[in-house]
Amino acid sequence: MSDVPAGFGPLSRSSPAIDLIGPVYSKGEGGELVLGLRVQQKHCNMRGGLHGGIVATLADIALGYAIAFSTQPPTGLITANLSLDFAGTAKIGDWLEAKVDIQKKGNRLAFGNCYISVGEQRIVRASAVFVVAGELTER
After folding, report:
1. Cα separations (Å) of 44 from 34, 49, 117?
2. What is the pLDDT of residues 75-118, one digit of tens each?
3. Which CATH number is 79's domain given?
4. How many domains, in total, are found in the chain?
5. pTM (whole model) above 0.90
6. Is the peptide bond before 23 cis (omega within 30 degrees of 0)?
7. Alpha carbon separation from 45 to 18, 40, 42, 50, 92 (Å, rounded)
């Protein structure tokens, strides 16, 4: 993990989708969760830039995990809406960081924003709405 910034470790909770785009790294918990991903060739489009679908997946994971694990017990969430605004891109070798701002977690809906950056440059702003589905269950 020499190419992973200090403080980041492997994401402790995975899924088949995360395994496809990973390895994904994390630091912090709950609302302080930050996800990291080193851009590889498998993450790029035909033009050699980071594919928007990878960014959308990373944002969805960051938002869902941060909101879900901001409560005890963790809250089960289902993505109802995810929208992204692209302000830049990334290339092979770049380190992406996804940070979340939880707007509100109610009894029925949860709202959050995610900012994905390369260094100090924000490349994506994502916002999501989740349906609250009760306590999170293990699969």
Report:
1. 22, 5, 16
2. 999 999 999 999 999 999 999 999 999 999 999 999 999 999 99
3. 3.10.129.10
4. 1
5. yes
6. yes
7. 18, 11, 8, 6, 11
Burial class (CB in 10 A: 0-12, 13-18, 19+), 6: exposed
Residue 55 contacts residue 114 (beta carbons within 8 Å): no
Domain containing 32: what range? 9-135
